[in-house]
Amino acid sequence: MDRLEAEGELLADRAFKALRGLLTNGSLRAGQFVSMPDLTKTLGMPMAPVREAVKRAESASLVRILPKRGVAVMEATPESIKDCFHLRTILDQEGARELARAGEAGALAALRERHQRVLEAARDAITPSLQREAMEVDWALHTTLADALGNGSVREIYARNRDRISVIQHSRPLLPDRIIPAMEEHLEILDAISGGDEQAAAARVRDHFRQTLRWWGIIV
After folding, report:
1. H helices within 44-127, ranges in order?
2. For residue 178, which phi and psi values (nearest 5 degrees)?
3. Three-state DSSP class for 128?
4. Which residues of 133-158 are buried (b: 16+ CB within 10 A; e: fewer)?
């Protein structure tokens, strides 16, 4: 690869990371359409690397390219919601089993404490900052479950799916009526893991999946 090719690849990487950031932080929302000129202006980068970034985003199922029109951000349809959370649940179950087998209660103590703190605060008053913290704590558990598998391929799949879920979540903010149940469900998962019960840990993960879909209006 010569210098110009290397610079082009570097610009494409930067453009993709910037585009991914816009998608996962809610700046570009589920179902939104944006023209290529507008996207190029927003990213503040040349058209060529932006086009490459959009292709990468499409391969990750984050956007859909509309020829000669622009880019459409993935939609938060019942099918996409169910598929994304189902994939996460499949991997989370195995991670929970692995942690239960390994007897990782001590290593999860700090994570459990964070959940308990958010839960107690939510029962008192839910503020915007607490909502943000609840999202961070929520993802901390799910990431811990995925990492427990110690599989690089799984980690990559999980990260890509997390990006899609992030786009979906910004279409409907984590409202107060979901924070308390979510924290309680997570604590049940952590308690089952701490008790060394693989089957119970996996079952609590599945319960959390079902409750999450119900909150999204999807009954399974």
Report:
1. 47-59, 78-102, 109-124
2. -110, -25
3. helix
4. bbbebbeebbbbbbebbeeeebeeeb
Classify domain 3-73 at the CATH class level: mainly alpha
Of 111, 54, 62, the closest CA to residue 84 belongs to: 62
Start and end residues for every CATH 1.20.120.530 domain found in the chain: 78-215
* CATH class given for the domain over 78-215: mainly alpha
Query: Which strands, in side-by-side order, build the sheet including 33-34?
Result: 33-34, 70-73, 63-66
Inter-CA distances, 140 with 4, 76, 85, 165, Å: 40, 23, 16, 14
Rounded CA separation 54/59 (Å) = 9
A 10 A CB-CB count for 40 gives: 20
Task: Tell me how far apart the alpha carbons of residues 97 and 196 are, in angstroms, rounded to a whole number.
Answer: 8
Domain with CATH 1.10.10.10 in the chain: 3-73
Angle at which helices 78-102 and 152-169 cross, to 10°: 140
Contact 135, 26 (CB under 8 A): no
Q: Would you call 1 helix, strand, or coil by DSSP? A: coil
pTM higher than the cut 0.70: yes
Per-residue pLDDT tens for 78-136?
999 999 999 999 999 999 999 999 987 777 999 999 999 999 999 998 888 998 899 99
How many whole angstroms separate alpha carbon 133 and alpha carbon 139?
10
